[in-house]
Specification:
182 residues, alpha+beta, Peroxidase, domain 1
């Protein structure tokens, strides 16, 4: 089993516990803060990933980081303790990502990656988000990227579904039809 799959299992277990006992949004914020502390410091990340650093040292370092965040929920403290006992502290970022996915799924929020040839105007952005939300049956949060090579139109990826309305793709389809008709 891959470390990401293991991290998703921890995230799922944490979500089940937090959903019953505590505030899911608070737990998500705490995990994101811990993840940010780890990912923003290259040396810290390397220490947590290194098999040469004793597990007790890694645990002490991460517990100090967690204490520095202030009042952290008992569920997150237990998670950090559990990961520390099993020498899996390097998985904290992946657990945070898996937990965020669970929270988004429970709230019926789906991420969408949108590529356009030019930046979207605010009204176009809102209309596109609404249309993608109707198609996905959920609320959509969009991340946008500009790529002039698509010439015009929109390419949107919502989950594993890709909606390609780019001019480049339309031209390629017309070309295939013309070649096929010869």
């Amino acid at each position: 089993m891959t470390s990401r799959a293991i991290a998703r299992r921890y995230a799922a277990a944490l979500f089940d516990v937090v959903r019953k006992d505590a505030d899911v949004d608070r737990a998500l914020g705490e995990l994101e803060a811990i993840k940010a502390a780890i990912t923003s410091h290259e040396r810290l990340r390397k220490v947590l990933e290194s098999p040469g650093v004793p597990m007790a040292t890694k645990r002490t370092i991460l517990e100090a980081i967690v204490r520095g965040l202030g009042d952290v929920s008992p569920q997150i403290l237990r998670l950090i303790g559990l990961l520390g006992e099993r020498d899996r502290l390097a998985m904290v970022a992946d657990v945070a990502d898996g937990f965020a996915e669970r929270v988004m799924h429970s709230k019926k929020i789906v991420p969408a990656e949108v590529v356009t040839a030019v930046p979207l105007a605010d009204d176009s952005r809102a209309a596109l988000a609404a249309a993608l939300g109707r198609a996905a049956g959920a609320h959509v949060t969009m991340t946008e990227r500009v790529d002039p090579s698509i010439i015009g139109g929109v390419v949107a990826k919502v989950g594993s579904v890709v909606f390609d309305g780019s001019v480049t793709t339309q031209l390629a389809r017309m070309r295939q039809k013309l070649v096929a008709e010869r």
